[in-house]
Predict the structure.
Amino acid sequence: MKNLVLFLSFVCLGLFNAAYSQNTQIYLMDSTSACSSIKELGLYISVGDIEEVNPIITINWGDGTTNVVNDQTFAANYQSYLYFTHTYNNVGVYTTSATFESTVTSDVYTSNLNEIVVSDVTNCGYVYSYVYQNTNCGLFWGNYLENAVFDLVGNDNVTTNFTGYLSGLNINNVPYTLSLNEDWLAENNLSQESPDLIITGFDPNGGPIYQGQDYMFTVSSNNVSTTLDLAFYYGYSACFSPSENGYISFSMLDVNCDTDADVLITMELPDFITPVTAGLTNPVLNGNILTFEIHDFNGYGWYYIPVTIPGTTEGGVEYTIPTTISDMNGGETELGNNSMVIIGMVYNSYDPNDKIVNRAENLDPGTAEKLQYTINFQNEGNFDALKVVVRDTLSENLDLATFKVINTKHAVVTELNPATRVVTFTFNSINLTPSSQNEEASKGQIVYEITEKANLPVNSEIENTAYIYFDFNPAIITNTTYNVNTVLSVNELNKASFSVHPNPANSTVKMTTGTKDNTLRILDLNGKEIAKTAFDFNTTVDISGISNGVYSLVLENKKGISIEKLVIQH
């Protein structure tokens, strides 16, 4: 029996594709902008195994006008997109369609019907903002405040109050001035620290264009306390079955910046995790309850505890570590933020149920982010694998027009059904060698990318699960990747975010983040620091002297801490 085995890696190479009949498919997608009478359509075209030279493509815009294109060549076994723009003269709802007349078979393929709404673009603008409460520890620690009340004043000097989000703005009534409502600030005993925001215009989708790039307010409390208030800032754990080790990482602080507290840490560990207590102060392990002490706590600290696990631990297992912090001297009275559940994951190169997305769970709700998904599989049976099929259902919150295959290791037929949103990757005659005979020849891979739909509401979720079929065996179902467009609420972590390219890497790796004053550390699987660097916005790190393996990239800045995996393959 053959099993599919997924490996954790990212590769960016070219797209290979194959097909076995002249089965042309077309699909029309709307890529229109809200604040423009100029609308755009994307036409998806999938060509069979014979080249199409100058087929007749017709776009019907629904208002009596058409576009005809007959000067395009489409290679065999290839998918592509053509984009068309059109200016509508009148407000209304228009039904668009497309046809594709093949020069190979003379067959005419008809697309789906697509509606375009052309509205009065004058009032298509919207505005949003967030409020971040600073403390006397500085912006490194703070909370997003919900239900803030804003004042918006347009060029006509009319003031509008709103909470969270306001639409229907006249895009010509600029500049707008956005500020926090004085009554709301007074009721909450807060002071606005950051300047008012000036909206100088709106983008084609109606989003505000701020003078400068920031769309967030900072406020501070008018009552600054000096009493001890311990709080968690961040926590994460990861374990690696091949190396039989892992780590627990967390940070904590005193919201009021005390510098001489004595703190007791209590953790409830999963049964398969054994902590390495060397280096901890007064550690006690009673069953699966670990306690240790931190003396002379200096207001903020980041802690890293190595652990060991059995090598047979199944990959993909998610686990939790309930953790509490307490003042050993008994003086703290605010205990509401002293508990946290640290989330962890077991990683295993030989895990048949894993799928990876290259973004952190929390996505910026103000940006349509590009997501990259990776699926790797391997034949661990005792006979060649003849055919592999991977089916993946794309979330309703993803823009199908942006779907793009980045890499497949073997020739593949890629079919995207816009109606069901299922993309099917078919590896015909793949002939994967058993891993016992040839490790590298036993592996297959898919890497694709797709972008979120624009202007998704806050808390929009994106889930993704792959089903993998190996010859005639039942499907192997991967874990479900999860992302959400969200602004973290009070006492939640606003994690840092950064991109890593390439991954796997062999000589250098580039880190990019939208924040300055960053510290980046590279840790091995034992938690040993291999490299450390400080940078603003982006940096390139020389990894040519680091051994092959899996490493942790730990980025820390004023927004928080984020941990990504880096695979080094020389």
User: Anything to note?
Assistant: Residues 494 and 559 are 6 Å apart (CA to CA). Residues 126-221 form a domain with the Immunoglobulin-like fold (CATH 2.60.40). The helical segments are 182-187. The radius of gyration is 27 Å.
